[in-house]
Amino acid sequence: MKQKELPLSQDRLWFLLTATVRPNLTKKLAVVDPSVRLRQYQEALRSWVEVAREQDAHIAIVETSGFERAAFLAAVDASDQGRITFVNYEPSAAVIGRGIGYIEWQAIRFALETVGFHADDTVYKVTGRLTVTNPKAVFGRLEPNGVRLRTRIDGSHSDTRVLGASVAVWRDVLLPAAADVDYDRRIEIEHTVAARVRHARTLGRVSVSRFPRRPRFAGQSGTNGAIYSPWKVALQGAVVRPWEPVIAIAARSISR
């Protein structure tokens, strides 16, 4: 059932956390134990609640394995649960067969259709088991045609762990990228998002921006089990950042 739309306000900021406590697929996953995954989601959620409180933002969680809201939010203070919307998305066998990225994008589609978003709201999709330790330097409200993400200089691959756009851009540009996913041909959601954004930018339909600072992730990768180190990312950023204006100019040239 569609939820009642929230009271109207302008330019709301949302963090949309994707979650799967009980993995629909275990292929290409290093972390499959539901108890471990739940603990990681809950630890990350506490951090996101703090970020949302500081930035006057809302949190939406879309969970794809039927896990219960009460258990998922058990570690969050009751006073903070009012800013969290939780929905369950049940992927079909056909959706599951298209792979993890496709499942995630269909879950995002379901959330955008179910939660009371407004077209101009800014929504940052975040892999729900990860946190960003420098949120003030990373997030912010975007223009109605804005999209913010990190993409390789040749435009072939975008980082989908965290990316932001208005709800309208999500619906018109980012969500349709799922249709092009083909894991048999090694065409993954990171490739198709990059392609759709590049195409929309070339046609002047979106305004693309990089994050003001490189997101410093913390947590554990579900695919390879690696632990993200914010300090390693910070060091990489210190080395790369002086060159980013040149990289941005080159990227704009390639996109035209």
Explain the layout of strands and helices:
Layout lengths: L12 E7 L14 H21 L3 E6 L5 H4 L11 E5 L4 H4 L3 H15 L7 E6 L3 E2 L13 E3 L13 E5 H8 L14 H14 L4 E3 L7 E4 L6 E2 L1 H11 L3 H12 L1
Parallel strand pairs: 1-2, 1-4, 2-3, 6-8
Antiparallel strand pairs: 4-7, 5-9, 6-7, 9-10
Average pLDDT score:
87
- Class inferred from helices and paired strands: alpha/beta
Quote the distance from N terminus to C terminus: 43 Å
Strand portion? 15-25%
Shape: globular
Work out the helicity level: 25-40%
Describe this structure in words.
This protein is of the alpha/beta class and 256 residues long. It has helices spanning 34-54, 69-72, 93-96, 100-114, 167-174, 189-202, 230-240, 244-255; strands at 13-19, 58-63, 84-88, 122-127, 131-132, 146-148, 162-166, 207-209, 217-220, 227-228. The strands form two sheets. It has a seven-stranded mixed sheet with strand order 3-2-1-4-7-6-8, sandwiched between helices. The protein starts with 12 loop residues before the first strand and ends with a helix. Mean pLDDT is 87; it is low at 1-9 and 246-256.
